[in-house]
Fold each of these.
Amino acid sequence: MIKKIFLIGNPNVGKSVVFSRLTGVEVISSNYAGTTVEITRGFLKLNNKEIEVVDLPGTYSLEASSKSEEVAVALLKECPREECVVVNILDSTNLERNLYLTLQLIEEDLPIIVALNMCDEAKHRGVSLETDKLEKILGVPVIPTCAITGLGIKLLLERISEAKPVARNKFSHRERWQEIGNIIEQVQQLTHRHHTLREILEDASVRPFSGSLIAIGVILGSFEFVRFIGENLISRIADPLFFNFYQPLLIKFSSFLDQESFIHHLLIGDLINGQIDFKQSLGLLTTAPYIEFAMVLPYIISFYFVLGLLEDIGILPRLAMLLDNLLHHLGLHGFAIIPVLLGLGCNVPGILATRNLESKRERFIAATLISIGVPCVALQAMIFGLLGKFSGLYVAGVYLVLLAIWLILGVILNHTAKGYSPELLIEIPPYRFPSLTTLWKKLFLRIKGFLIEAAPLVLLGVLIINVLLYFKLFDFFTGIFAPIIKGLFGLPKEAVVSLVMGLFRKDVAVGMLMPLALTVKQLFITAVLLAISFPCVATFIVFFKELGLKDLIKAVLIMLFVALVTGSLLNFFIR
Amino acid sequence: MLPAGFIMQLSGILNKMRRISLKQMKTNQKGIVCDISAGSALVNKFMSMGIYIGREITKISHIGLKGPVAIKVGRSVLVLGHGVADKIEMEIQ
């Protein structure tokens, strides 16, 4: 009786795409090793029975070397043999490397079925495989699939019950490779192709000079592209919707309520010059939705669209290679750039992605640098809104200060944190033309995730602020922190509320700054301070879950120290 | 006629001279892995990615003086940190 299906395979062979095909559960997939760090579960119906499908993080062998691999292997070894089937997913374009894990799985006496994925790409690259022969040699069912288009998935399901353990001798590592050599000779034919443009680009992107040029171009281009899409979504869609349709409705509603009442204060907020001001009124129906949907959401959409493109084309591992040198000085290696880039969207997936790093020390450094030096998209959008109207230079200034903090703090942590940092060892995937459906699905998933996670928090944040403001409970807070804020940072004591609120949710915090009428210098300092402090409660939680209480306390102390030093320095040096 | 022992020694020296570490190889140079001086965990990881003694490797690029090394093994492109690349000794044909 089959109860569980495990999907296992090398990194970046498309396990997650197969998983989506089998279960209908949408998961994020990209073109780099290590997209999946968590174990995803779903269900499928086979002969009217529900079977659990488990998508495991990619691994090269059954001897795990990182935390996400460890988890995959442990789960597999736990499951009773008669209740599970292992679907081993292989990349047809690189059969040789993939077979190592397959042979190991067979040697473990696991019931296996092999899916030769990306069979269409193999054809394009001049690789032809004799599936029947491979099936005979391995003694397990082999099915060519193309998960992106869905080809072969049905056949895979039909034959899943044929998966049975085959008795096979245990090999030594060397013998395994010899065996693989023999198999490849029998089943694989390569047709020589001329160098395509894609291959020329692939080559150029790993060479020092051309690679750096491409990388700089890609980073600057992406940044501009994100801004372009974000700004246009705001000015052409979000703002017109809010001002032309939503505001008239709210005005009617406002006049219907008693302006002095608590309810009016809660829902609409304060009227500015007798008008509803989406940025300053601070009501549950005014500022809260405006911040989320007209200021932050457009940038979430544009950021994740561009990130998805970069991920699916296969640019990120190449960046990892080029930045390896620099990141070594921060006690990390090149791969750490991927969690950092994910952190620019939201720190939570960024910190989760540090699971791909091998040592605890690296994970601590990376997670601390992400939560302190990497602003999430919600915060960046608010900084654009806050400082962009004065000058783009201020916005650039915030990024420069953060970059400096990131580098300096990294060097310091590298010299102080205990433990070891292993070296980079990754595979560079071929460039792929992104599939529009995967791109779209991924974008949709991430936006949905943002809305589910952020919207309730923002509403709650605005609610708390409103209640506290109405009952004048903030004076207590402001009284305690006012000396630091005023003396060191040169900020009015009202800014305390925003800074404290910032630990809860950044966009709300910046929203609270808008009515304060701060000078540009004060806004700049507050923006930097907000960027340094942890982005939101969710970051605290994920940091705690991933690295434990001790590391969380360490990181928070570092964060407070960095904020104190940076705030004072900026206040002292900027005129 | 040279004594056989001398020839053996000479060829031994020549053989050693052709052995260099992966990071010393030139771009686009091919070689065969002849020694990996690393702990068993790393050797296993190399093994699973297709780097083992006797395997042919082509070096593709090298970023900076102390940067990572990109190599081609079979059909995959792998990137190894500087220190890791130093642990792999190659024999050049």
Note: Residues 68 and 83 of chain B are 8 Å apart (CA to CA).
Amino acid sequence: MHDVRKVDVMENILDENDHIAEHIKEHMKQHGIMVINEMGSPGAGKTTVLKNLIQELSDMKTFVIEGDIESDIDTVALKELGIQAVQINTFGACHLDAPMIDHTIDHMDLGHGHHHHHHDVQQPVDGILYIENVGNLVCPAEFSIGEHVKMLISTVTEGSDKPYKYPLAFEKADVIVLNKVDLIPYLDFDEDFFMRGVRALNKDVPVFKVSHKTGEGYPELAQWIREKAGSL
Amino acid sequence: MHEYPVTLQMIKIAEKHCRDAGGRKVKKIHLVVGDYSGYIGDSIRMYFDAIGEGTLCEGAEIQITRVKPQLKCTECGQYFEKVPMSFTCPHCGGEGGPSSVGKEFYIETIEIE
């Protein structure tokens, strides 16, 4: 009979993911690129928000990684706009993780061809990598994927109870985009209740109300992103 | 699908600590999983049965301690369990904010031989 011994481990399962995420963050910053992890339910308008932002911030270099369970229609639409977009199909998995992004970035042309000579020199941040996560309000919030900014898209059509039902996504967001606000007159969306939930979870997070139909809110959101990139 | 990569990672960590301690086999893995971690213990067990084979962890018992999420009151500082659709503190009526209780996801100990 062998002796059974107990060994203290105390090691987080996601440590490795988080180490890779930290590496991506640093690597991208050195390339002068801010990474935005865009999260939201299916149908929240993630791709539409992205397209609007890309237009507003057209003076910045733009890169897109599209996470999708199996289609590439969003990527095709972005490529038609002349944007460098790369597809990741997760084939069933409900979120992206840092190793997937790390692998994808390895195959992207991030520009700044001379960066190898200036590895210690901080590039000014003049580019944005948008990563559109898989449509899901639960799992993506748990994984860092190397982002500098977690951007949560919530919509008035989903209802005002979302912060109460999916607290982690709201707690972790660095910026919240309340989408489709042109529809408020036709819905029972209770904005006060929504905002009370948001504030309980995330005291200072900026919330931008936007609409693709009217264009409202996008200049302000774009300005916030610009300032964030400038302060990285 | 969601638990597959984390189960692999759990096995990797347990194997590493087993080897470092001079063990040859992992008999038991004690995992702490918060309900807000997003992981389901039973799913981890299911994947473990399939992918633990051929590793030092094959046949190990997976013991899981679940942790219920708690909010921390911003007024009185006490921790409490959230009820649906509310963040109100049951002790003082103040407002609860997020805490790290319930987000745990780590291996506490392993038993090896």
Note: The interface with chain A takes residues 1-2, 5-6, 9-10, 13-14, 17-18, 21, 23-25, 27, 36-38, 82, 84-87, 95-98, 103, 105-113 of chain B (CB under 8 Å).
